[in-house]
Each structure stands twice: as C-alpha cells, then as structure tokens.
Amino acid sequence: MALRAHLVARIVGDLAGSYNERGVRRWFERPRTQLSGRAPEEILRARCAPEDKDVVTMGDLAAALTI
C-alpha cells in the first residue's frame, strides 16, 4: 500500500505542473495506448509492483509532461 501511495504521489507531482486538479484526476481515468488501452487507474487497482512494465510506463508518461 505504501509503495502504491508513493507511486501515485510521484505521478501527481509530475502532472501538477501541466494539469489542474480536474485534469490530474482525468489523466488517471483515460485509457492510454501505451498501456494496452487501459487507464492508469485500472493498473493501480490491480496488484502491481513498482518494477512492472505498465507501472514503469505510467510513470514515464507522467514524467514526460515535466520536460
């Protein structure tokens, strides 16, 4: 649970520079081609580990918005 909370906090931190509060919430809801058509919230609901491919991709997608 703590790892998931840390992951979400890191992603929200990255998104906060590009999106308002509503935009951040919607980012987690929208399906992503890079995540095989799944939304980030679907991945976070499943049992996942920080090193899982989709989790890494999700973090990369959010971090790309800070550049």
Separation of the first and last Cα atoms:
29 Å
Summarize the helix and strand pattern as letters.
Answer: HHHH
Would you tell me the overall average pLDDT? 91
Taking all Cα atoms into account, the compactness measure Rg is: 11 Å
Helix proportion range: 55-70%
Q: Give me the count of strands.
A: 0
Strand content: under 5%
Q: Strand count, sense and closure of the main sheet?
A: none
Low-confidence stretches: none
Number of helices: 4
Which class of secondary structure composition applies to the elements? mainly alpha
Number of domains: 1
Shape: globular
Provide structural commentary:
By secondary structure, this protein is mostly helical. It is 61% helix and 0% strand. α1 packs parallel to α4. The N and C termini lie far apart (29 Å).
Topology of helices and strands:
Layout: H1 2-16, H2 21-29, H3 40-45, H4 53-63
Helix pairs in contact: 1-4
Q: What structural keywords apply?
A:
67 residues, 0% strand, 4 helices, mainly alpha, 61% helix, globular
Offer a concise description of the structure.
The chain is mainly α and 67 residues long.
